[in-house]
Write the structure tokens for this entry.
Amino acid sequence: MNFKGIHVVSVRDFSRKDIEHILNLADTFIPIARGESSSTLMNGKIMATLFFEPSTRTRLSFESAMQRLGGRVLGFADPGGTSAKKGETLADTIRMAAAYSDLIVLRHPQEGAARLASKFSNVPVINAGDGAGQHPTQTLLDLQTIRQEAGKIDGKKIALVGDLKYGRTVHSLAYALAMFDTELTFVAPPTLQMPKEMIETVSQMGAKPKLVNSVEEVIAEADVIYVTRIQKERFPDPAEYRKVAEVYKITPEILEDAKKKMIVMHPLPRVKEISPEVDDTDYAAYFKQAFYGVPARMALISLITGVVE
């Protein structure tokens, strides 16, 4: 793929070869992301971060990535202080941001917003999460985490746990993992299981996922446990949320049956689904995972702005 100028809306826009190219480049950026070396690669470039929905890791890691490469950032973290409050359309906001920057990073609560934004922008748009839809850059950092912390992606047994219905991170990740030689297991209560169309899609790609209800069924065999938060904000009915709010919790006791080199991942923020006692174990990879958001996003913004190939 020629990455220069492309919009990044869904991980489905990439082939396995494309993903591996991004990850290989991301690996080279790790020293810069850690501040061990410096770069002027994005000198003179401006990135607009338009966050219509709360974010900590995604927004800050994008900004860190751009600034550590020598670029600059403008944007907002609260739409309440923008003309959207006055009724400005997303299309017009995007047109204005495109006039002021070289690329746009958009987070929006409405599924499909990033695809819509791409139609009105003459600079690349990166989807930083659209409702319960896609989160392609989270997938890139997740894959980089697996490569760095578990050694490789191919051949791994990976369990996705929690809110698989509304969780945009697992929708993107499941699709990407199906491109590799992985064994997927979806762990969720029936009401939050992976959407049928996603199960069908990854099955057609050859993944043949298993569907189970409990972590205990997979803990002994898994190489990666990817835990997600039960997302209260996505539930149309608060009563339905309360039924499943604390259905899964990873504790040191559960991990007693895990492989020695198994890793626990989480896109964060967590609530109660991973016990704080797990943080100090060798299994905890979720804070390292958050760090990998910087080199992964460095690689992507460098490619789509054309400063590297």
Summary: The first helix runs from residue 16 to 33.
